[in-house]
Amino acid sequence: MIDLSVSWNSSNPAFKKLPDSPGPYMSACTLLPNREDIHVFLAVNSVGYIFNINSNSWTLLRTAQFTVKIGSFAASDLETGLVYIPWGAVDGAGRQELAVVNTETRTVETVATPGLNISTLGAGVWSAPLRSMLVVSYFGNAIYSFTPSQANEPSKGWNVLNTKGNVLLEGFPTCFVPAYNGSKVILWTGFGEKKGLYILDVATLTWKEGHIIPDLVGCACAVSGDQLVIWGGTRNSTRSNETFIYNIKTETWTSRYIAPPLSPPAASPNSQIPDQSDIHSDPDDSHLVQIIVIVTGVLLVIILTTIAVYLGISKRLKVDTQSTLSDDTTSDDGRVSPDTCQKRKSNASGPFARVHLGSFGARPLSEHPHAVVEDPLGKRNVQEGAIGVELISQHPHAIVREPSIKIHTNNAALDTTRNWGDKAELGDDE
Asked: Which of 127, 271, 336, 367 is at a distance of 20 to 30 A from 195, taking alpha carbons?
């Protein structure tokens, strides 16, 4: 096995020795989908094996329903997990068929291959964009496709693809691998005069020729990033230990392999503790953050609105108080105007509000011994004070007209019913 997760030079690749396989080196082999471990399926004669790369061990898959010869090949659909082995089974009449292996149920189904002149020596690869297996054969100058969804049609799902571009497909197909998520397929036919390196664009079915290297057959290959890595096999009838690196974009061979940056691993379904990247990218967490931000913003708006209303009311009350005090005017002789008294009455709210608005202006509870103020416990309005309101003088001995009143002087309190006329007169001190 070669490690493509680290960088290395072709003179010293990152090899790792694995346990020997139970079958020949040219048996049908393909990668299996697995969420936790990396598995490889190997078909040998009438039995199959599964290799777990993580545990470094082989497991026998007991089945005797298919027949695989040396040089056979396989391709796996990583979405369904099914393994397709062209000419992996033989019907009762001795005709070779396509074997479809389900490694989960350990069952095999067969599909006929009518009218196809394809050698068992070939190579196959699964194309995810086409949802088909692509097959090239040593003796056929064509590329074939098998589409499982068309298996019940007369063609049994087999078709010949009409590709474009100058390509010679009669060489021995040593390497046939997908690249760039299946959007391209790379074919290496490295034997004899018909050797070549070709790249197929799956969308347009157009071939493009690359630069070849010396003869090499029976090798392994893989694509990592923009690099095609080829190792092992046989060169000039001698087993090869060389490793070759081809840059797909620059179309050049190089002696240095550069490992691409690793993408974050997908979370396991049984994971209990998410990593830090999961915490920041989880949709529920982002929704929670949005809710917190919205609620905080609403509360902030409510608080600011409340403060603004409170300050507005306080300012209004202050202006109203100053306006009330400025409106308390008196006449030239010191009398309080009737309008002022009327305003005080309208502004009073409650029985104790009158205490702060005395009969002699805004001075509550005058200290003058003969000042007349409203009794906070009395049931009289501000305009109905003890000695009237219209002609209230600030003089302590002022006498005003009333049907029957008491006038307080410095010496005594007198009762009278005299009609004093229209105007009040000042009394003399006795």
From this structure: 127
CB atoms inside a 10 Å sphere around CB 46: 13
- Pair 332, 340: CB distance under 8 Å: no
The reply to whether 256 and 342 lie within a common domain is no
Bin 411: left if φ > 0, else alpha if -120 < ψ < 50, else beta: alpha
Q: How many domains does the chain have?
A: 3
Q: Are residues 82 and 195 in the same domain?
A: yes
Burial tier of 192 (Cβ tally within 10 Å: 0-12, 13-18, 19+): exposed
Does 215 share its domain with 345? Answer: no
Q: 57-98 pLDDT, tens per residue?
A: 888 876 556 666 666 788 889 888 888 888 777 777 777 788
CA 428/CA 32 separation, integer angstroms = 127
pTM of the predicted model, to two decimals? 0.57
One domain, residues 108 and 194: yes
Instruction: Output the CA–CA distances (angstroms, integers) from residue 393 to 83, 139, 337, 366, in the order listed.
Output: 118, 134, 11, 14
Amino acid sitting at position 116: L
Say yes or no to pLDDT of 186 above 80.
Answer: yes
Q: With a cut of 50, say whether residue 356 has pLDDT above it.
A: no
Separation CA 401–CA 418 (nearest Å): 9
Nearest to 258 by CA among 15, 6, 16: 6
Query: Domain span at residue 412?
Result: 326-430
Say if strands 234-235 and 252-254 run parallel, antiparallel, or are unpaired: unpaired
Q: What are the tokens at 35?
A: 């969420």
